[in-house]
Amino acid sequence: MDKNGKRIARYSAEEENTEYAALYWGYDYPYEVGRAAVFEGYKKVLDNLIKQLQADIPTLSAKLK
Hints:
The protein is an all-alpha fold. The model has no long low-confidence stretch (mean pLDDT 82).
């Protein structure tokens, strides 16, 4: 948003996770594997958003002056 509260740009990203796991005695399968997949998905989405922002730096810099 600029100094007047007007939106300059909007960014979005999506990620689809696939989980592979083997059963192991004492391994909390659904919780640990699911949690790892979710965090990996967050990392991929954030990397995608950062790339979008970096590509728009010239446009954003001009509009934020």
